[in-house]
Amino acid sequence: MDRFDTMLAFTRVVELESFTKAAMSLNLPKTTVSAQVLALEKRLRVKLLHRTTRRISVTTDGAAYYERAIRLLNELEETEAALHQATSNPKGRLRVDVPTPLGRLVIIPALQDFLKRYPEIQLEIGCDDRPIDLLEEGVDCVIRVGHPLDSTLVARRVGTMQFLLVASPEYLQTYGRPTHHDDLQRHQAVHFFSSKTGKVRNFVLEHSGEEQEIPTNRKLAINNGDAIVAAALAGIGVCQVPTFMVQGYLNEGKLERVLGDYPTGSLPLNALYPQNRHLSTKVRTFIEWVAELFAECRLLQSQPKLNNNS
């Protein structure tokens, strides 16, 4: 039985605290993973795991072995990647997860370029906004908006999401057009709230180079960007939304920019992946492609093309 296979099986069981989940992530039968860990313990002549009917935990010897095993596996993968990178294209299954609006409007429309460049990658994309356990769900990396909250993940900045204040022409005709940020207190506002934290995101405008939260008459809060855009189109109120989500509606005249002379807030776009894993060639390739895409994407630029008065 290959030593590195047994080492990989053991580290995955430790990380997921489950033989079943480890087997699923390695695409192996559970009996195979169990046999590999038993063989490893037999060869080392130490007990690496505490096993009960409810949970699996690592022993003191197992924890020490895990730390060294992870380093060795990472070094092995890095060495193999360096040797093969010059002569082979990235290949294999790559599973990523991206926010639904960003995937629908920016990433997926550009995917033909990625698939042509890297024909040996089998790409699986989840479009979701929920928190994801990358190890447990077998996800290689995720693209997320905002500042990372999970310290167990490595974050690489791949872009910036700019925001605009918008409203429908019908709403502005009925309630008037605000000309100063203080005017927003007299208008109906539709806000975003996070399903993860429950926190409502206030409107943000820049003043003297600093972002400031603006008081508003909060009419409605919604936890989905597409639904907020729908609320704006329905004339419910003023919304602060990502530029890329409303550019088409601005061009068509279905929405209009509000307070266009005031710079609006922004949030970072990050690629996240587990910190205890070596960054594989295929993951690095996707992250670099996404960063290039975001840098060139007109929908993500801070000064979008507008066909209406702001």
UniProtKB/TrEMBL annotation:
Residues 1-59 form the HTH lysR-type domain. Keywords: DNA-binding, Transcription, Transcription regulation. Gene3D superfamilies: 3.40.190.290, Winged helix-like DNA-binding domain superfamily/Winged helix DNA-binding domain (1.10.10.10). InterPro entries: LysR-type_TF_proteobact-type, LysR_HTH_N, LysR_subst-bd, WH-like_DNA-bd_sf, WH_DNA-bd_sf. Belongs to the LysR transcriptional regulatory family. PANTHER family: HTH-TYPE TRANSCRIPTIONAL REGULATOR (PTHR30537), LYSR FAMILY TRANSCRIPTIONAL REGULATOR (PTHR30537:SF72). This is LysR substrate-binding domain-containing protein. It comes from Methylophilus flavus.
